[in-house]
Amino acid sequence: MAPNYKTEVNPQFPSGTLRASVYVTSQAVLKRIFVLYLYVRLYFSVVVRTLTWPIRSRPRSISRYQRVRLRLSNWRYRLFHASEIASSHVAALVSIFDHTITEPSPISETTDPAEKPVRQQTHFTAPAVVQAAPEQPNSFAERSFLSSPAPERSLSTIASTIATRAPAPAEAPTKPPTKPPAEPPTKPRSKIVSIEIPGHRKFRFQLSSRASSRPLGQIKTSIARSDTNYITEVAEGIRSVFALETHDDGSLAPIIVRLAWHCCATYDKESGTGGSNGSTMRFLPEMTDEGNYGLDMARAALEPVKYKFPRITYSDLWTLAGKVAIEHMGGPTIKWTCGRVDCPSDWYVPPNGRLPFATKDATHVRATFERMGFDDREAVALIGCHAIGRCHKRLSGWEGKWTRTPTIFSNAFFRALLEEEWALDTVPESGRHQFYNLDKSLMMLNTDMELLRDEKFRSHVVRYANDEKCFFSDFADAFAKLLELGITRDAHGNVLLRNILPLVPIPERA
Prior knowledge:
Blueprint: H1 26-51, H2 53-57, H3 62-100, H4 140-143, H5 155-163, E1 188-196, E2 202-210, H6 228-239, H7 253-264, H8 295-301, H9 303-308, H10 314-328, H11 362-372, H12 376-383, E3 390-391, E4 400-401, H13 412-419, E5 423-426, E6 433-436, E7 443-444, H14 446-453, H15 455-466, H16 468-483
Antiparallel strand pairs: 1-2, 3-4, 5-6, 6-7
């Protein structure tokens, strides 16, 4: 049976004529192609989700499961990446045809039937492009010779440029703009991503990504060293937030010490990145580092102090709060100097994974502290902060306190290491392994027990357990050094901004 074709008769022509016109524009064709592409993408998405459901729901073995998932993820990534490229090409073609091809006009009736009808034709003319004058460098990145290059123009960007016609050169404003030019967006930077699988080697990848969608702003400087009255008022405001009956043991001082400790422990002496300068924990990804879980409570507790004393920077506030908290709990007097600055965006955030891991051995502990510039004696003294505070299974998976006086700073941590009998056990709710004493009232992490297994670390543990005054003296020096990591001062004690340059990855050593 022959197919039945439906024709559309043009009403402009007399009835009974056999003239007919079928108008199928390129826009309609492209729309059909795009709808077909959406259906194909939805189909493949459903198929992939269906095929991977048994693997996702019930993994059989870790190695085989990971291998299959990686293969499927690679295949899905290539498929969807190709679909995204096709989508951008279709969108570009649609945008171009929208402005280059007009609807064909109907055939006009003529007096002479022998004369051929003439169709209207349109010709595309390239729009005039007016190049604006270069803007003056305003951002800190441009002043530091770190201005971003011109962004690459993809196919979709070119299409949108063609669609938007620029004004003619005669229409360009002759007067300079009154408003200051906008800050340029942050440029892409490279990051080193570390992936570590238990029982396997550690993989490191260098990725190029856009660090921030916000433009660089002005770096905020802190108060002057001579303003001692203002610093005293800030310290009094910090002491007023320590007491909190609903928190662990009725005090926020231990977690504030942890905040000051962790905001400085990201320092890398080789690359010069990280440290206490910049208060980068306000941004991702450092905010979500595994070692920083729960510190949002400490930062929120100090917000009223920051609101009351806005002249002090966050980096000065957090480090000063750690000093005040240690002295408030009976610890030694810590030397502290103001002048730290706040970074304007997450451009300066160091990579995650620089904080100590509680499941590692003595080699990891020594390497972590050597990266910050500490020796074995200073490392053991700083770990003595475990005399205060406790672990929470809802945050880290470990549960319990190290000493029986978690709100008093002393050498009780070292005495408990030597005097108590420890046995390895598991936290039922999380499955984490930790060490308990006989009555399970105290706990120790694996890195804590490594201080006893390593002979060099153990000698300092014994010395600090027998002499609290010696521990206080060494801890005061080590903690003051910790608060100054990542800072270079001039002869007058002012912080030099050259240490706040964006993160530049260094090739991994062999």
